[in-house]
Design brief:
Blueprint (H helix, E strand, L loop, with lengths): L1 H23 L2 H14 L27 H8 L2 H6 L8 H23 L5 H8 L2 H6 L3 H20 L3 H16 L6 H11 L4 H30 L21 H15 L3 H16 L4 H25 L9 H16 L4 H22 L6 H18 L6 E5 L14 H12 L3 E2 L3 H12 L7 E4 L2 E5 L9
Parallel strand pairs: 1-2, 1-4
Antiparallel strand pairs: 3-4
Amino acid sequence: MDIMRRMNLNQLARACESGFDRLDRSYLLYVALILLGMYSLGQLTAPFIAHDDFDWLLSGFDQGFETPFSKAGSEGRWGNFLWSKFSPNLSIQAAFGLYLVAFSLMCVAIARVVSPSSGVLAALLVFLSPMTAETMQWPVTQVTGVVVTVLGCLAMQRAQSDGRRRLVMAVAVVAGFLFYPSFGPLFLLMYAARCNGSYRSIVLGALIYVLAFACAVLLVFTLNYVFHGTFSIKPAAWREATPLMHGGSLQGNIERYLAWFQAVKPLWPALIAAAVAFALCIHQRIRTRQCLALLLSAAMLLSIDASLSVISGLSIPLRSTVWLWLLCAVPIIFLVYERRALLPGLLLALPLAYTGLLGWQSAYSGTRHVFPAMQSTGMEILRVQAANAGRFDDVILFGDVHGNQAMGWLHSNRALRNYLFKDMSIYTRPCDDVLCARIQSEIDQRVEVPQWLMVDRHLVWVLSPRNTSTY
């Protein structure tokens, strides 16, 4: 009887494994789940993009946030400066579509580097990163870094030795730094997952990564010196940097860095699942050396981030530490695809999926109605313009966009002005102090707040009854 029971259990296990294999090889399922997820967030029909991504979609617009050339000096992303010569040809929808395709491919490529036998589940675990949920709001400036990462992953898949993997990592880190530096650490973790795990290989991998990072920084410093006259990266004023060597206090900068740990707290289900997965891998001797290499690499990345944050006086947003999510996903991928611990691996994938889905929902909880509301506003302005042709010289946006519940998620009035010009060719501007006072007086004399009014040949579109934002 016991023998028969064991045979039945083994048959059931093989049937479940066979069913999982069929689903895991269906990349149509991967595509369908991504499209369904994007549709549920509203990104498929009306993609939301961050305010300063418009700087790469509009060429020569006089109401941008920071020019690509200036951004290259303040963030070192010189590759994106070159990209800005072509990106204005994209529409908002095309930019998001291009990013979504590239990012989906990147997740598959990363999963295949970590484990060559991986499939849909591994790619989805990488895709669900709450960090990249937020960075997807910058599709125009992020897509270049994603493409560089995809190419680096393809090269690492073909590398047959640790020496060649280290070379790929070095090139990818330097190239990626010119587009989006936060993807560079992913290559150190991918190298750790694929190397032979020897002491020599781990040490050389860490050394090459540090040298490549240093070379990337020196390259950017040199470009900034040639084109901006400063041998450094000077952060934009809004970041409120407090460099340790230029007036910043050690205690204050440490406190700014420690704020990152507060941002990490919501990830606790994924962090606990990853810790259990690492323990299981080590206990069951599943890629033990690679797990130790991953943990050592993560410790080094954490130290680098802490050092840079304290020295520069800049806080680290959670979206800049994409590597932390990959660190959580890798041991679970090991468990699932080594087949010796499929069920525990699948169970541990659940907290990761739950945390990721919550992160995505949080990142887009208020964006679904933003772009439809802006489009509706633009259509109304066009209608009023047509009905009042010849009676006005320009269009003024008055009030505060945050007074509109549907558009409250927007960064500022300027973001709305950028959208109207990009998507609907409507040029609007804010009012100066004198005109603002006249408009305010006109509104105060009315019983109801008008949608629009005409003041001294200015067509004024009223966002709210008080002009609390002129940005």
